[in-house]
Write a structure and sequence with these properties.
By secondary structure, the chain is of the alpha/beta class. It has helices at residues 15-28, 45-53, 65-77, 80-89, 99-109, 117-129, 145-158, 166-169, 171-186, 202-211; strands at 3-8, 33-37, 92-96, 137-141, 192-196.
Amino acid sequence: MGKLIVIEGVDGAGKNTLARRLVSAWARDDLDVIRIGFPRYDYSIHADLAAEALRGRHGDTAQSVHAMALLFALDRKYAAKDLRKALSRNDIVLLDRYVASNAAYTAARLSESADGDAVEWIRALEFDRFGLPVPDVQILLDVPVELAAERAASRESEDISRTRDAYERDGSLQSRTSAVYGGLAASNWASRWEVVGPDVDPDRLAADVFNEPPDSGKVTT
């Protein structure tokens, strides 16, 4: 059975870049790696409905915190079988966002902390009721919110297909989400967390998260 490793962080943190570097590092060690990004836009009806809602469609859906959380959760529910299959066939399954993303954004939209009711609701919904695989390691890419916002805006200006949605444009929401992420990581929510900065050495991180025993949670700067 392979390891399920997740990269989390606010929009514009650099998760995609870090994911590519980790995959390259593992490939050099001849490890079989598959990479999956959530939400699964253009593949999952639930993800596409959420994306459309965040761009002003489907009435007041985007204003409902719980409706949006359910759409993102259902995207993962219908990916669970594929995740288990991937774990049975690969050394590593690397996810760009997972359950913690839903927990962080839902709590932030409700102005709750990491130990609030929203986070527990997401945990019970996705891990308990939907039976999603629990990560072995969750990596928080901890980048200043201002820097992340600059990156997201730059990405939008360079690629018209990557227009920022309502969440990405809300600086206050991004700040609150970052704080919730910090609380989740500090408590090793759901599984072990690693906290890394924008200058993390991807080769060292790749070795750390693959080789460390599952009970050795730690924070890396």
